[in-house]
Amino acid sequence: MQVFNVQGMSCGHCVKAITQAVQARDPAADVQVDLSAKTVQVQSSLPAAAVVEAIKEEGYEVSAA
Q1: Number of domains in the chain
Q2: What is the pTM of this model?
Q3: Virtual CA dihedral for 23, 29, 33, 39, nearest 10 degrees?
Q4: What is d(CA 12, CA 26) in angstroms, rounded to the nearest whole number?
Q5: Residue 25's domain is classified under what CATH number?
Q6: Which UniProt keywords apply (predicted)?
Q7: What's the sign of the alpha-carbon dihedral 11, 14, 20, 26?
Q8: What residue numbers bound the domain in which 39 lies?
Q9: Which residue from 63, 39, 41 is spatially nearest to 52, judged by alpha carbons?
């Protein structure tokens, strides 16, 4: 399980965009977004750098938690 701090998330659209961005790279990825904590948990075979890149491409600021 990888955990990331993601700034700029505020709504269901954000959740969907982040989930789809990660799953575009790994369709089997399990993505859990917590808007109030501003965290994203990802269970995936992708390296952390690939997950960060996918989320950044959606316009969010990301750092490892």
Answers
A1: 1
A2: 0.92
A3: -110
A4: 21
A5: 3.30.70.100
A6: Metal-binding
A7: negative
A8: 2-64
A9: 63
